[in-house]
């Protein structure tokens, strides 16, 4: 398994409840290294561009509004098979279906407000990292 990088976002429901450190501990305990990180407040337009792939889904408007409702922490996680490993640590999109011990099982409050985002494939990871970070900001 090769070393990979993936884009992670700690969403507004989690930053609001002061959970950044607890979530980061789960990533680090799983062997993922945080090689870039910043706290930002997205505009609805910036959130909309990030989630453009979901533009036709019924929850798109609500999702963009939520992602712009408070600060987020955007970060790049690095490690062996980091994309799949991060998805494991996150748990299922629907927190009621997420495995025990995952971020979403412990912290998510609903399907929409589910505490974290993680890239789903190498191509999307590369695009999503470039959306938020320049090469100079990735310090492995
Ligand atoms: P994931 O974040 O697990 O990759 P998706 O890419 O399918 O999930 O969806 C992106 C985000 O959109 C989810 O994390 C969640 O915040 C929101 N979302 C997905 N499905 C729903 C839904 N049925 N109702 C409300 N929000 C949803
Ligand atoms: Mg997704």
Total number of beta strands: 4
Give the overall silhouette.
globular
Spatial strand order of the main sheet: 2-3-1-4
Count of helical stretches:
7
Distance between the termini: 18 Å
- State the share of residues found in helices, binned by percent: 25-40%
Mean pLDDT: 98
Element order: H for helix, E for strand: EHHEHHEHHEH
- Uncertain segments: none
Hetero groups in this structure are: adenosine-5'-diphosphate, magnesium ion
Biggest sheet features? 4 strands, antiparallel
Give me the secondary-structure category. Answer: alpha+beta
Portion of residues in beta strands equals 15-25%
C-alpha Rg (nearest Å): 14 Å
Write structural notes for this entry.
This protein has 140 residues and is α+β, with helices and mostly antiparallel strands. It has seven helices and four strands. A four-stranded antiparallel β-sheet has the order 2-3-1-4. Helix 3 packs across helix 4. Bound molecules: adenosine-5'-diphosphate and magnesium ion.
């Amino acid at each position: 398994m090769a070393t990979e990088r993936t884009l992670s976002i700690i969403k507004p429901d989690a930053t609001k409840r002061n959970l950044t450190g607890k979530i980061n501990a789960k990533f680090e305990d799983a062997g993922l290294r945080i090689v870039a990180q910043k706290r930002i407040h997205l505009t609805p337009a910036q959130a909309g561009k990030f989630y453009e792939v979901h533009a036709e889904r019924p929850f798109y408007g609500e999702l963009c509004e939520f992602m712009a409702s408070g600060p987020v922490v955007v970060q790049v996680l690095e490690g062996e098979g980091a994309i799949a490993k991060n998805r494991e640590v996150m748990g299922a999109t629907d927190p009621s279906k997420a495995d025990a011990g995952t971020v979403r099982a412990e912290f998510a409050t609903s399907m929409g407000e589910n505490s974290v985002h993680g890239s789903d494939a190498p191509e999307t990871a590369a695009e999503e990292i470039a959306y938020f970070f320049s090469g100079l900001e990735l310090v492995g």
